[in-house]
Design goal:
The two termini are 50 Å apart. The chain has 270 residues and is mainly α. It is elongated and about 75 Å long. It folds into two domains: 100 residues, Winged helix-like DNA-binding domain superfamily/Winged helix DNA-binding domain (Arc Repressor Mutant, subunit A), CATH 1.10.10; 151 residues, GntR ligand-binding domain-like (Four Helix Bundle (Hemerythrin (Met), subunit A)), CATH 1.20.120.530. Helix 5 runs parallel beside helix 10, helix 6 runs antiparallel to helix 7 and helix 7 runs antiparallel to helix 8. The longest helix is centred in the middle third of the chain and has 27 residues. The protein has eleven helices and four strands.
């Protein structure tokens, strides 16, 4: 559908990732759905302008005719359009998509750390999610996945003992555990958190300064051995202990020089 011009200002209610056509369709359908009577071109144009989308009245008319053709609306003489059942379903799809996008953005904001307090909050979520992932991995991991985990842990141990940085290998192990859980939900949430490079870099720097970075490989070995021997509760407990150790390191850093974790800002010099 043609859009004459989009305002340079943020669209009211628009979300990051909206394209012009999708936003236009959503706001137009929403306006029709909220009306007690038929809606015409002038009202659609006005409502879209309020949302930051500028259309000519002629373009608004073409938009409504496209809605008719697609079965989203039904013309009521010369008075305007009403939303059909198909149009209502289409609007519901838009609203569900926008709700998912909003939830994803809120999750991104939650894991994008700025303070030690933020890291502790994320680690609390990781403790729950990854302990359950480890428990399920002990029940569901294939033999091939166990071998892949063992190889990843061995590579991580070798890199750390050689004095090299191995943050990516550390992250890969946690992602492999989530994958082996066979829970798509746990895997998606764990991966979302683990993919935040800023969080990984800050956490790694703090552990390195505390001299605690080298503890992770041995802890991973305990987790993977529990998964290999099909010991779900032991695997979960080993993962909790692993995350708890990281929590202690972060709290100690936050309490340095008598400053509480909640007030310790994370800067580039961490």
């Amino acid at each position: 559908m043609a859009v004459a011009k989009t305002s340079p200002h943020p669209r009211a209610g628009a979300q990051r990732g909206d394209d012009a056509d999708v936003a236009t369709e959503y706001f137009a359908l929403k306006e029709i759905s909220q009306s007690l009577g038929p809606v015409g071109c002038w009202r659609i144009r006005s409502s879209l302008q309020a949302a930051g989308i500028n259309l000519s009245e002629a373009t608004a008319g073409r938009l409504l005719r496209q809605f008719d053709v697609r079965g989203f609306t039904q013309a009521v003489g010369s008075k305007g359009r009403l939303l059909t059942e198909k149009g209502k379903r289409r609007l519901t799809e838009h609203e569900q998509t926008r709700a998912r996008r909003s939830a994803q953005h809120e999750l991104w904001q939650a894991v994008h750390v700025e303070r030690i307090e933020d890291i502790l909050d994320v680690l609390g979520a990781r403790r729950l999610i990854e302990a359950e992932a480890a428990r399920l991995a002990a029940l569901n991991a294939s033999d091939e996945e166990v071998v892949e985990l063992e190889r990843a842990v061995a590579a991580h141990i070798a890199e750390v003992r050689a004095g090299r940085r191995a943050a990516d290998l550390n992250r890969a192990i946690h992602k492999l555990v989530a994958q082996a859980s066979k829970s798509h939900v746990l895997q998606a949430v764990a991966n979302f958190i683990l993919e935040d490079n800023h969080l990984l870099q800050v956490q790694t720097r703090i552990q390195r300064q505390a001299g605690a970075e080298g503890l992770a490989p041995e802890e991973h070995l305990v987790i993977v051995q529990a998964i290999k021997h099909r010991q779900p509760e032991r695997a979960a407990e080993a993962m909790r202990a692993h995350v708890d150790r990281i929590v202690r390191v972060m709290r100690a850093y936050g309490d340095a020089a008598g400053q509480p974790a909640a007030s310790r800002e994370l800067g580039a010099g961490v």
